[in-house]
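Hi R.,

As promised on Friday, here is the backbone we talked about, encoded as structure tokens. Could you run it through your design pipeline when you get a chance and send me back a sequence?
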């Protein structure tokens, strides 16, 4: 079940190929570990690498002129992030987004030029890469449509359900380890909208607030709020 389109899903062929050719040394890459809230890269950085997430989650987001931020994607284990290295050196532009670890992250940093050459020589992997990039475009388009159509409360309930699914919480009570500010950044709304949504869901008896986290107390009631945004896979 995917309740809101923020989480990039791995493509098995692409993921298994990256794992294999990294082990055989066909790609120049190095192992890295990020602690929670460490930056993988920031807006304005000149990125020459592609990053393959082996464990954990990375948030890709943009800063807004009014001091807030908007989540573009969450990248999970088995996904790739950072493609500026595919550009010609003379045309390369700095990153317009920030990438920051949401959890502890293990990843492979892959030389972008070598990765590009590998894709040119292996059509099946190149096709899998094209599918992966198209899916990211489709996710962003659907999320933009959802933001235009559905009220914040409904989208917020859907986000909570998605987070529960991503963290493997199948039953209530379940903890959502994010503050109102962090949840507002995920949806790209003002924190007051999240505060009001939390109050509404508390009145509906499906969540409770703890310090720095929300506790989902009733999945069924929460789903009833978000049901038009729930997509079964």
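Update: got your reply. Pasting your designed sequence below so it's all in one thread:
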């Amino acid at each position: 079940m995917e309740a809101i389109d923020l989480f990039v899903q791995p493509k098995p062929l692409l993921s298994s190929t990256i794992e294999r050719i990294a082990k055989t040394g066909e790609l120049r890459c190095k192992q890295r570990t990020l602690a929670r809230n460490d930056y993988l890269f920031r807006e304005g950085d000149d990125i020459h690498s592609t990053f393959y997430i082996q464990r954990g989650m990375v948030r890709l987001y943009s800063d807004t002129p009014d001091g807030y931020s908007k989540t573009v994607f969450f990248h999970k284990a088995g996904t790739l992030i950072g493609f500026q290295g595919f550009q010609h050196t003379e045309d390369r532009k700095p990153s317009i987004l920030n990438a920051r670890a949401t959890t502890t992250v293990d990843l492979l940093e892959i030389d972008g030029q070598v990765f590009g050459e590998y894709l040119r020589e292996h059509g099946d992997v190149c096709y899998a890469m094209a599918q992966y990039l198209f899916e990211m475009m489709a996710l962003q388009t659907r999320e933009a449509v959802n933001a235009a159509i559905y009220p914040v409360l409904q989208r917020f309930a859907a986000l909570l359900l998605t987070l529960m699914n991503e963290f493997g919480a199948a039953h209530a009570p379940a903890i959502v380890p994010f503050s109102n500010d962090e949840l507002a950044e995920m949806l790209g709304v003002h924190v007051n909208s999240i505060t009001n949504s939390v109050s509404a869901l508390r009145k509906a008896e499906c969540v409770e607030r703890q310090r720095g986290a929300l506790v989902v107390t009733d999945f069924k009631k929460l789903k009833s709020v978000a049901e038009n945004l729930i997509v079964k896979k």
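One thing I noticed while checking it: Residues 179 and 212 are 5 Å apart (CA to CA).

Thanks again,
M.
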